[in-house]
Amino acid sequence: AATHAYVFDNGLSSPDFFDVEKRMASEEFGLIRGRCEVGHHVFEIGCFTGLNLLCLAKIGHEVLYGIDFVKGAIDWLRGEADRLGMDTINVFCEHFDPARTSGHWDRIICFDVLEHQMNVGKFLDGIARCLPENGSVLFLVPKGDNFNDCGHVAWFPSCECLVNVLKYHFDVTECFELKSCQKLFACCKRKSQ
After folding, report:
1. What is the DSSP string of 55-113?
2. Is the pLDDT of residue 105 over 80?
3. Percent of the chain at pLDDT above 90?
4. CA dihedral 95, 100, 104, 109 (to 10 degrees)
5. Tell me, what DSSP letter sits at residue 192?
6. Any idea what the Cα angle at residue 139 is, between residues 137 and 140, rounded to 5°?
7. CA separation for the pair 176, 75 (Å, rounded)
């Protein structure tokens, strides 16, 4: 019950939310693991409970950074990282600011965040500025408006639509639908100059 307190403090009412988050993190981690080699510096925008970061630390990643604006989730992650003796995870309760993160990250993870952005283009410009020449970013977004009661303001009904939005900021290397969770995944590289 104590681990669920942050969920209730932030307006979410289902006691199962935490378990769903763990399940989704496991599915998400399958997308991340093969694209983030040990040694890569990884930055997760919207890390929430940081389960992806915890998994990356467990397999040997040493430079991990996450941000989310849900303070209770960040507090839980810090406690869990301390409990597990993982001192490689740095997390902060803040919004994304490209001026503070520019050029330091080999991989940026941005799962379930893009659909919450009022100005998608400005947000993507910020991410693009944070990528070094060989850097890449991983996106996961709901397909269509299947979660339209969760504060979503941008919708992506198909891979084609998602690629059309991303291609102005990145070179899209792959995009496909995850039918099991009705989401779209895209992996992008920094746009060639």
Report:
1. HHHHTT---EEEEES-HHHHHHHHHHHHHTT--SEEEEE----HHHHTT--SEEEEES-
2. yes
3. 34
4. 10
5. P
6. 160
7. 33
The two tokens of residue 121 are: 């283009």
- Which whole number is the average pLDDT over 76-95? 86
- Predicted structure pTM score: 0.85
Q: How far apart are CA 87 and CA 70, in angstroms?
A: 21
Compute φ and ψ for 58, nearest 5 degrees.
Answer: -65, -30
Length, in residues, of the chain: 193
173-190 pLDDT per residue, tens:
999 999 888 899 999 998
- Between CA 81 and CA 132 the distance in angstroms is 28
3-state secondary structure of 44: strand
Among 162, 165, 157, 51, residue whose Cα is nearest residue 109: 51
Q: Do residues 193 and 187 touch, judged by C-beta distance below 8 A?
A: no
Average pLDDT, the chain: 82
Residue 166 pLDDT level (bands cut at 50, 70, 90): very high
Return the structure tokens found at 72: 């209770």
Q: Does 55 or 123 have the greater pLDDT score?
A: 123
φ, ψ (nearest 5 deg) of residue 143: -80, 125
Nearest CA-CA partner of 164 in 151, 177, 175, 153: 175
